[in-house]
Amino acid sequence: MAFGTQDETDEVMNEINMTPLVDVMLVLLIIFIITVPVMKHSVEIDLPRASSQPQDAKPETVRLSVDAQGAYYWNENRIEDGDLPRLLKDAAAKSPQPELHIRGDKAVRYERVAQAMSAAQQAGLRKIGFITEPQTR
């Protein structure tokens, strides 16, 4: 056993081992070679042109009220029973079609409200709603 200099075994390695780096680079190269043709493969489509401006046309609201005696009111104006189908057809012909809000008095016979709903359906109105008051406790 020699207790002399051990310069041969204690030397520090000054060089980087390039083999793992080359292996990683080759794997990345193979991945890119495989994926690039897949990414470029696409179907050629001639897309149509369209404007991206939002449509601001909001449909108007038509209020049809039925009072306790069964009289009809079109936007708070009294109308005769014979005028109702004509007014509903005129409203249905508008674009965009208005929403029909029916307000029926709680004392009116349901028949009068049902007649108004039937006339609105025959005229072609698609959006019909009912206006009620919230229940108080």
Q: How would you explain this protein's 3D organization?
A:
The chain has a 5-stranded mixed beta sheet, covered by helices on one side. The chain is elongated, with a radius of gyration of 40 Å. It is 34% helix and 15% strand. The chain has helices spanning 19-40, 83-93, 110-123; strands at 61-66, 72-74, 77-79, 99-104, 128-130. The longest helix has 22 residues, at 19-40. The protein has 3 helices and 5 strands, in the order H-E-E-E-H-E-H-E. The chain has 137 residues and is α/β, with parallel strands linked by helices. The chain has a domain at 61-130: Nucleotidyltransferase, domain 5. Strand 4, helix 3 and strand 5 form a beta-alpha-beta unit.
State the helix count: 3
Low-confidence stretches: none
Radius of gyration in whole Å, from Cα? 40 Å
How much of the sequence lies in strands comes to 15-25%
